[in-house]
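B., you asked whether I could sanity-check this one before it goes into the benchmark set. Here's the sequence:
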Amino acid sequence: MRMFPAVIIGLILFGFAARADDYGVDAPHEHLSSVSDPVFDQKIRDYILAHPEIIVEALREAKKQELASRSEAARETLKSHRRELLDDPASPIAGNPRGDVTIVEFFDYRCPFCKRVEPALKALLKED
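And here's what the prediction gave me:
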C-alpha cells in the first residue's frame, strides 16, 4: 500500500488548517477562498494533475468510511429498538418460537428483491 499519496493529502489538509488558523478561521471551509495563497494552491493543483489516482483513492476511502458509518448507525438503531423487534406479541412468527436464532425480516410485498429472498428464508426455516 502506498503511503505517499496519503501523506501528501494529509499535508495538504494540514496546510489548509494552518493557513486557516493564521487568518483566525476555526477550520477549513468557505472562508479559505478569500485568504488563498496562489503559490500553495498551484502546487496542490499541479500535484493532483500529475497524480490523479490520489483522487480516486481518496474517493474510495471516503466511500468506505461512509459505509462503515452507515453500518454503525444501523447497528445502533437495531440495538435501540431490539425489544420492539424481538418481543412484539403482534409480530408473526414462523418456525420454532423458542428457537436460538431469530431472523427479523423487513420487506415490501411489491419489492422484487424481497420476493427473491423468500426461498432462502424458507430454506433456513427448514434447516433449523
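One thing to flag: The helical segments are 4-22, 38-50, 53-80, 82-86, 112-127. Otherwise nothing jumped out at me.
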